[in-house]
Design a protein that fits this description.
Strands 1-2 form a two-stranded antiparallel sheet. It contains 6 helices and 2 strands; from the N terminus they run ααββαααα. Helices cover 77% and strands 2% of the residues. It is mostly helical.
Length: 175
């Protein structure tokens, strides 16, 4: 019996010790309230995350729309630039062809007939070789005109001026 009594005493003492420890935890009220507070915070954060995900998806849709419009705009601008550069290339080729054909000597029978376009481009340049070429072409034109009309440009000779005297008057000779 004594063994039984000792066992009973130890069991009672253990039960009191466990009850004291459980009462020390206040029936887990502190831990449980902290757990509930953490769960509430987690729920709030989940809601915030869901709202942010919705906003993010809306922004992604908007950005995709912007990218699509940007790609369309780029395609349109690229097409316009190609057309513009094509037109510029055609104009450059035409101007180059006109310049080449302008300097190509045209012949009327055996006599050289200078083109008017050839002289109009040289009006502004009156130095060096171009000045000599313009004077020669003006002399050829005035002599051709004088031989056709049968008179020797009477007005200029009456005043004592030669076609080479004033380069500004060459413009009128070409007309």
């Amino acid at each position: 019996m004594r063994l039984q009594e000792e066992f009973q005493d130890e069991a009672d003492e253990l039960e009191k010790d466990i009850d004291r420890q459980l009462k020390g935890f206040h029936d887990f009220q502190g831990q449980q309230s902290r757990i509930e507070a953490l769960q509430a915070r987690m729920q709030q954060k989940r809601k915030v995350v869901e709202e942010l995900e919705e906003r993010l998806s809306a922004v992604r849709v908007r950005v995709a729309g912007w990218e699509k419009r940007e790609a369309e705009w780029q395609a349109k601008i690229t097409r316009r630039l190609r057309i513009l550069w094509g037109a510029i290339a055609v104009l450059v080729i035409l101007v180059a062809a006109l310049l080449v054909f302008q300097h190509w000597p045209s012949r009327h029978g055996e006599q050289f007939v200078p083109s008017v376009a050839n002289h109009t481009l040289r009006i502004g340049r009156i130095s060096g070789l171009d000045d000599i070429l313009v004077r020669k072409d003006v002399n050829v034109m005035t002599s051709a005109t004088a031989s056709r009309s049968g008179e020797e440009n009477g007005l200029r000779q009456a005043e004592g001026h030669q076609p080479d005297d004033d380069p500004r008057l060459r413009v009128f000779d070409e007309l």
